[in-house]
Amino acid sequence: MREVIISVSVTYRALTGNGLLSELGERVFGNVGNRRYCVISDDNVAPIYMSRALESLSKAGLDACSYVFPSGEKHKTLETVAGILDFLAKEHFTRSDALIALGGGIVGDVTGFVSSVYQRGIRFVSVPTTVLSAVDSSVGGKTGVNLGGLKNQVGTFWQPSLVLCDPETFRTLPSEQFASGMAEVIKYAALFSEKFGDRLLSDFNTEDVIAECIEFKRRVVSEDERDTGVRQLLNLGHTFGHAVEKISDNYYCHGQAVAIGMVMAFKAAVKLGVCPAGETEKLTALLTKFGLPLTAGFSEKEMLDAMQSDKKRLGGRISLVLPRRFGECFLYETDMSQLPSIVAAAL
Ligand code: GLY
């Protein structure tokens, strides 16, 4: 088992280890301490893992109930939040009780948000069951739901009390979702470590890779919990990627779109003269190894139209993450009027 200790406004452990889901009860008993939990999941994950989670909690002498909502981005809404809040109130949950998010990024973001507002804030445990949520959203305390077609428009910063990741749960992921998560893993290599990228190209142990990604994220959020500086580097590939997701009407899932977005960021950096051309090959070799797309083939106009509404646009300026080389990136802030030439360079 691997452990990373995250010290931000609160301190908590992220544990990664095969078989940990069956130890959920004893781990929350030892690390969180509350006696009563509501395990929140979606209707994809609950049929596979809910009974194991509840059994483990009961074996540790803890009271537990469960709440399951429909899976998918279209249920990442305030209506879903209201449904959970109503349920907790009916079950007489109090501030000495806690929630457990069992699932991928949507379950984690929704449960984290509910935790942050129910009775002005209760504790929650994150149990990510996808690569994507294990390496990114389960750590760092961003919570939220979508509003009016815009992603994560309503949210809070609310840190979990424990993160427990069992990589054996990835075995039931569809291969496309596993690859999607690997795009975020590759993102850490492109951002912070060429060496880590080299290891991903050879044989690797999933438990170690997840723990190392959590360690990269720990360093970033320890420096910038509220996302006002260095944490924005984690958006590598996301500004172009969100446009790709939008134009394709989610034909490309998040990780695939981020993969395409990262290639675009590298191409733009090469054309802007801030990154040597050979660095893009390291990225494309990794994306290819994990079956991720390198391009979507969208036109400059389609990309520009989709990017106009990107929420990172602030008062006519846009912030992009660009590489200096594979393993080192920086924030490139520019005027929106420069966007057409950047998009042209990126295609
Ligand atoms: N997903 C990016 C972040 O946590 O800041």
Describe this structure in words.
- The chain is α/β, with parallel strands linked by helices and 347 residues long.
- The protein folds into 2 domains: 2-172, Rossmann fold (3-Layer(aba) Sandwich); 175-346, Up-down Bundle (Dehydroquinate synthase-like, alpha domain).
- 45% of the residues lie in helices and 19% in strands.
- The protein is built from 13 helices and 11 strands.
- It has a 7-stranded mixed sheet with strand order 1-2-9-6-5-3-4, with helices on both faces. It has a two-stranded antiparallel ribbon with strand order 7-8.
- A hairpin with a 2-residue loop joins β10 and β11.
- α3 crosses α4.
- The mean pLDDT is 95.
- The structure holds glycine.
- The residue fraction in helices comes out at 40-55%
Which ligands occur here?
Answer: glycine
Secondary structure: number of strands: 11
Provide the CATH top-level class of the largest domain: Mainly Alpha
Largest sheet: 7 strands, mixed
Q: What would you call the quaternary organization? A: single chain
Output the strand order for the largest sheet: 1-2-9-6-5-3-4
Number of domains: 2
Uncertain regions spanning at least 5 consecutive residues: none
Approximately what portion of the residues adopt beta-strand conformation?
A: 15-25%
Briefly note the structural class of the backbone. alpha/beta
CATH domain fold name of the largest domain = Dehydroquinate synthase-like, alpha domain
The number of helical elements comes to 13
